[in-house]
Amino acid sequence: MKKVGLVTVLYNSESVLNDFFKSLSVQTYNNIILYIIDNNSSDLSLQKSQELVQQYCTFPTKFIINNDNTGVAAANNQGIKAAIEDNVDYILLLNNDIIFSAETIKTLVDFAVLNNEQ
User: Fold this and answer.
1) Is the pLDDT of residue 118 over 90?
2) Where does the pLDDT of residue 38 fall: very low under 50, low under 70, confident under 90, or very high at 90 and above?
3) Does the model's pTM come out above 0.70?
């Protein structure tokens, strides 16, 4: 089973995190690692994420905390680097203001495997 790294960047996104974590918790594909990069949020995004990880996540989760806002691209790169170090097979960059169906990650992995995507 392919391992998937999910990378999301926090920046003052407290209000959308409940739905994001709920949709992660119902995924039928569960060989995932979640990388949460906080880009020096001034709201409670980091604390809220830590609480929601405890509530919803049955898969490994890693936090990377920036003391400055490095920008979304640099923060995504931090998550990508961590995922590569963990030898994931696929990396998916996720905005945390999205909600997706229970089959989303499975569908994406199945498509990638079927089409010999590396």
Assistant:
1) no
2) very high
3) yes
